[in-house]
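pipeline/complex-builder :: batch 7 item 3
reading input block
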Amino acid sequence: MVQNKVMGLIVQKYGGSSVADADGMKRVAARIVATKRAGNQVVVVVSAMGDTTDELIDLANQITPIPIGRELDMLLTAGERISMALLAMAISNLGHEARSFTGSQAGVITDSAHGRARIIDVSPGRIQEAIKEGAIAIVAGFQGVSQDTKDITTLGRGGSDTTAVALAAALDADVCEIYTDVDGVFTADPRVVPTARKLKSVTYEEMLELAASGAKVLHLRCVEYARRYEMPIHVRSSFSTNEGTWVVKNQPEGDIMEQAIISGIAHDKSEAKITIVGVPDRTGVAARIFQAIADADINIDMIVQNVSAASTGLTDISFTLPKSEGPNATSTLQRIQGEVGFASIQYDDQIGKLSLIGAGMRSHPGVTANFFAAMSEAGVNIEMISTSEIRISIVCRAADLERGVRAAHTAFELDGEPGEAVVYGGSGR
Amino acid sequence: MVQNKVMGLIVQKYGGSSVADADGMKRVAARIVATKRAGNQVVVVVSAMGDTTDELIDLANQITPIPIGRELDMLLTAGERISMALLAMAISNLGHEARSFTGSQAGVITDSAHGRARIIDVSPGRIQEAIKEGAIAIVAGFQGVSQDTKDITTLGRGGSDTTAVALAAALDADVCEIYTDVDGVFTADPRVVPTARKLKSVTYEEMLELAASGAKVLHLRCVEYARRYEMPIHVRSSFSTNEGTWVVKNQPEGDIMEQAIISGIAHDKSEAKITIVGVPDRTGVAARIFQAIADADINIDMIVQNVSAASTGLTDISFTLPKSEGPNATSTLQRIQGEVGFASIQYDDQIGKLSLIGAGMRSHPGVTANFFAAMSEAGVNIEMISTSEIRISIVCRAADLERGVRAAHTAFELDGEPGEAVVYGGSGR
């Protein structure tokens, strides 16, 4: 009699630090095979090994300071090609059939924006065929093929996570497991807050706010994709077998019962602040400034405009942006200084951003007051504020940031046992 | 007024030693651009950089001693992907558009024999489009895509040269230029014979015999392909601008006038000799032995069977084969020893093969006598002999081989000025 066993379809994604060398490959292969032996169909998305991508970029820079996007993508995709073939070999070695597929072969169709392509469609016919035939499919993360020109593209930052979620959605998988070097999503960065606790689950909205606020564990794009297709993500460590953190539409009942008002605290030291001093307080001036910034393709984060002094009719405008965009932004502003007529530009890269995230704050109006009191007690001066329905962010001095994170973590009763979180290594792409 | 300039279409192939590092890439790029600026359409086939292939094989061996063919091909093709993208960047840097294409993108269709796939068809639509639009096309050598399974394949030894000739034939190119680390095809290996001279031209037939007899400059498969499609090959150095050697159907009149009887001398130390001692001299015994060898997929070269001694009815059979096949051949023979009833097997890997090649020997019956006299004078003992219409090969002691090559070179008046030949480096795949 044939047994009707309920099979799951699991997509697993392993980052570059998990497959950095032969030992890592073998450990990951054993894990994949265990999942297969447990009765599941398994599709694996893998990043380039360890530092491969950086080494390839170095090679390109030896040739030219400004590599053509099409060719840089052709070059970088060699990295996943190497890791996926080796991983397939490691799995075969354990007695299971594995077939590797490039992004193109896996049907990852993108637009033509080399280096930061967006996934338009996923047609995983070859993957479905492979898993139907009992094989484990290994797919190159971070890459696809452009719909128009059939050229190889890369997806940019977070590309491998996004590949995994997109593939999971197209295959109607039961779960997308993202393996990383930490045990899951924590109430704060364990390197800053030793008493940080692992979250059992977190909603897509909270995870989006955490990722946008500096939490590195998952990339914004991948969470956005998961939310759109309601694909559950299980973030867990490739170095342990511990249950990780589930990223889902709604938290399970049990988790809600014990839920704190704040799910987590994120911090970010990668931003700088630009202050435009002495801006004429006339209609259209701010619009002109931010249009110029947008035209220069610069993403800005928080904006604050002071009330103008009645005596002068002048005001100051401050905004934050990634430090990497600083030079571009200042030169863009200098170009329009004459036209707009402001006095000067100040550039400050010694800032930090601290964000409280939690769906619970919707129903708890006192959060802001508690938060500001905690910052005041910790001697952290608040320079800028921005909020969403489930997030409060502040900008402070970079030197005060970690102290602020610890103070907020304690104030909102997030502290667990010290050393609960383990950080195993670097992070992949 | 539009000038009607006669444009040529040139396919150039650069080996791994020519693009071993950034400087090599830039030098090759400059050469390609010069060819383009001279008014030609240019398609370039490139091998993996320097030792990349060996490094990738090392990686595979860290995972498993017996990598799956499909995945090894997937792995190794990363090598050309890297070199072709970098070369395209180096060309762009010189102000010309270059687009790189994988074997699959270039339409190189093969059978499914991973690691030694044969080209079935070339459909270079994307290449034609690229060169029509004025771009230089860079194509990965050594690789293709299988017709049946759409899997990535590699062509094995000589694969990049073969890719170049096959592409040149499919594009109806005017010439296929094979760039290497020597100035062309020489009358003998310049490292052994310092007075070796560069040949202006050589026929496909002669080049086939040279390649089959141990000359490394061109691979047999590539010459076979060129002969089938009558594609002229120009073998030349990537380290100089000297005219190289043309491999053509018929030598030009001028070259024939000055042609020696012998075009060149090849030698080979890669073979071993197996002697099967005391074989019963009955019908079908030799056939049984060589069927077993063939079934084990072993390629043999020369065969000699002694006249059997009337007293015993036993004979000895000797044959040569690549040293790498020695263990396989001896174990195969041991398996059939009982059935066939021979006495013993002798394995000798201290042999050398020396071959005289020249279309001129068709009309000069004295060549063999002169050759054997020269060997005798040089004290080289001849152990085996085989001939074709345009080749005489002998097997001798490995220790005598180079002395024999120099003696034959002098005897057939091939000597030029010492040091005419320059050897620049290693050789690619």
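note: The longest strand of chain A covers residues 271-280.
queue -> next item
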